[in-house]
Every structure is written in C-alpha cells, then in structure tokens.
Design a protein that fits this description.
globular, alpha/beta, about 35% helix, Aspartate Aminotransferase, domain 2, 15 strands, 2 domains, binds pyridoxal-5'-phosphate, Aspartate Aminotransferase, domain 1, about 20% strand, seven-stranded mixed β-sheet
C-alpha cells in the first residue's frame, strides 16, 4: 500500500521533534548534531531567537496579502538585497526551483526585449542541480531526474563544468544565457578554478549573453560571503537565491540588474504567496543577523577550523577518503568508501551529514556553529573512520 506521504524520498529513521541551535532532537529522545542544516537552509541554526521573535510578531499582525498590495517588509527586504549585491531589482518566490525558473524567464525576456527573440537557449553545466520543475530539470539535464517524465523541455544545452572552451564552443545564434552554480552543491560540492567565473563573464559580454548564477545553495552566507560569487571579481546579470534566505520559512528570490530585467513589466510574472508578509519577516530577520558586523568574519574563522579538521581526517585515512572540497561551510569529502554508508554510520553516532554526487560526504553546519560543536563533530568523524573495516 502506498504511504500517505508520497514515497519520493528514502527517509532516515529519525522523526524530528524540535531543534535548538546546532542540535536536533528526535521524538524517541535521541539528540543529533545537525550538520545538514535542512540542506543549507537553517543557517542560523534551529529556532534562532531573533527569527522566532520576528515571525511570531508578524504572525500576530498580518500573515498574507496578495502582491496587488504594497508590502512594506517586501520592499525593505528587496532594498537590502539590492544594497548588498550587484542587483537593482528583486522578485520573491517560494522556492529555489521557482527562483531559477524565473531567472531563465528573465534571460529569455531580456533577449526578446533587446530584439533577439530567437535567442532563447540556456547553456548549463553537467553535474548541476537547479530544482525539480520541468524547466529547471531540463536546465540541469540530469538523466536520472528526467526519466519517465515525458519530453524534456526544449531550450537547454550542457557542457562540462569548469571548462571555458566547451562553453564557448556551445554558443550559437540561439543562445540567451549561461546558467551556473558558483559552487556546485548537489553535484558533489565542486568549486571551479579561480578564473572560471571571470571567463564566463567575458564570454557573456562578448556574445551578448546574460550570466545567471544559481546561488540557491551557495548563497546567503554559506561560503563566508553573502553570495559565493563575491569571492571573485565577477557579478552576474541575474541570480537565484532561496534555501537560507528564510532560515526555513519558504522564500526564494530572483535578483537582476536593471538592464537584465528591462523586459519585466506589470503582468510579466506573478506569485500568490511569493514575498508575503510572513516570508519577508523571516528574510529580514535573517539579514538582520547576517549583516551584523563580524558575522562573516566569524563564519570564515570557524570554516577554516572545520576545513583543517577535515583535511587532517582525509590525510589520516587515505584508504577511506580522497580529498576535501568546497568553500566556507559548504564542505565535502570525496570518499573511496560509499559516502551514503559512511553518513549512515555518522548518524548512528549522533552526527547528521549529507551526501552529494560524485560519492561525496557533504557537510553543511549552520553558520552559527561554534568550536565546541566542530570538536564534537570531528571526534565522531574520526571515531567512525577509525572503526571502519578497511581503515
Ligand atoms: C536546492 C537547490 C535548488 C532547488 O531549490 P528548491 O527550493 O528545492 O526548489 C536549486 N538550485 C540549487 C543550486 C539548489 O541547491
């Protein structure tokens, strides 16, 4: 008999009951150190007091109005994202997939607006993940997720990640934009070489294409800057964010420059829930915390500490692990053993981690993680590695 919850996930044997900071408590009383953060969502930890205050206060005032109304909190959140990024304008949606979907729409609309309606194709990278809608699945082009769902939406081409020659060679008269994750998350926590984003920017400028970054996972502080591309000297024309923007309250956003969004006018796009008062109250509270002086310096400091621990672990167990990957607190270890088995063992010892493509153990602590929790996690990692049969 099919379960009442449609069985599209291989779920863990953990029934979450409550959370506090870096810790998650199960209904059976078990306590876990949560280095999944709801897949890069609860970056300020579980039940952050500032978030609770902001969302409960908003909940007593007003939950929802449509986007036919002025929504002061939405205006404020948009202005703050604009002030802290390359962007001039923002549209709020409810998820990462929607934010990427709109980014693709903006890119196509831009080309149409500047007199090139024939430019509608988007070049993406192998190993990408952009969400589960038809367009975002087609954009990533992963066979496993597309199979059985009928014709794949037209308009997407794919090249190897981190390869500028392939990217340049894939451009045709029909290309509208390039869509990449500055750090690939689901695909295996893969960072490109230093000059890759710069090279993409140059290609886009040369051919009149828009550069679109999917920062749904890498954005909102995950790498130690508000957005991962801010480590480079490059800015995109359009960017999708979501995951940590609401610390668990569903909210996504498509950010764009004035030029890129020139074709977006009244009626061009819409959303029933997008940017409603509750969601933007959460988003504003997240920014209140992240934009406080010293927040990102602290993230950098703890991420260096954790990175060092992981590198030591990889060095100590070369039969189990191949290399450390990632940026900031978007970290991974490519494994020789099956990453999923290792993650299951960590879970049994009280540490929650994830996997990613390419047989990677993915580690996404909340950005508020402290030295104590990092010590605790590396103790568990070391114990499981030490007790592993082949170690
Ligand atoms: C998670 C993710 C998405 C999809 O976000 P949803 O909120 O699940 O729709 C898109 N792009 C990237 C890079 C992601 O990590």
């Amino acid at each position: 008999m099919i379960p009442a919850v449609m069985p599209t996930y291989g779920r863990w044997d953990v029934a979450a009951e409550r959370g506090e900071g870096c810790y998650l408590y199960a209904t059976d009383g078990r306590k876990f150190l949560d280095f999944t953060s709801g897949i890069a969502v609860t970056s300020l930890g579980h039940c952050h007091p500032r978030l609770i205050e902001a969302v409960t206060a908003q909940g007593r005032r007003l939950w929802h109005v449509s986007n036919l109304f002025q929504i002061p909190g939405q205006q404020r959140l948009a202005e703050r994202l604009v002030a802290n990024s390359f962007a001039d304008t923002v549209f709020f949606n409810n998820s990462g997939a929607e934010a990427v979907e709109l980014s693709i729409k903006v890119a196509r609309k831009y080309q149409s607006h500047v007199g090139h309606p024939e430019r509608y194709r988007v070049i993406g990278c192998q190993g990408s993940f952009h969400g589960r809608s038809f367009a975002t699945l087609a954009a990533a082009g992963a066979e496993a997720y597309l199979k059985g769902f009928g014709p794949v939406m037209d308009g997407f081409d794919h090249v190897a990640f981190n390869n500028l020659n392939e990217m340049r060679a894939a451009i045709t008269d029909h290309t509208a934009a390039i869509l990449v994750e500055p750090v690939q998350g689901e695909g295996g926590v893969r960072s490109p070489s230093d000059d890759y984003l710069k090279g993409l920017r140059a290609i886009c400028d040369e051919f009149g294409l828009l550069l679109v970054f999917d920062e749904v996972q890498s954005g909102m502080g995950r790498t130690g800057r508000l957005f991962a591309h801010q480590w480079s000297e490059v800015t995109p024309d359009v960017m999708a964010v979501a995951k940590a923007l609401g610390n668990g309250f569903p909210i996504g956003a498509c950010l764009a420059t004035e030029a890129a969004a020139a074709g977006m006018v009244a009626g061009s796009h819409g959303s029933t829930f997008g940017g409603n008062p509750m969601a933007v109250a959460a988003g504003n509270a997240v920014l209140d915390v992240m934009l406080e002086p010293g927040f990102f310096e602290r993230v950098e400091r703890v991420s260096r500490l954790l990175r060092g621990k992981l590198e030591a672990l990889v060095g100590a167990y070369p039969k189990l692990f191949a290399e450390t990957r990632g940026s900031g607190l978007l970290l991974g270890i490519r494994c020789h053993v099956t990453a999923g088995d290792f993650v299951a063992k960590l879970r049994a010892e009280g540490l929650l981690c994830l996997t990613a493509g390419d047989n990677v153990l993915r580690i996404l602590p909340p950005l508020i993680v402290g030295e104590r929790e990092i010590e605790e996690a590396s103790g568990i990692l070391d114990k499981v590695a030490r007790e592993w049969p082949q170690s």
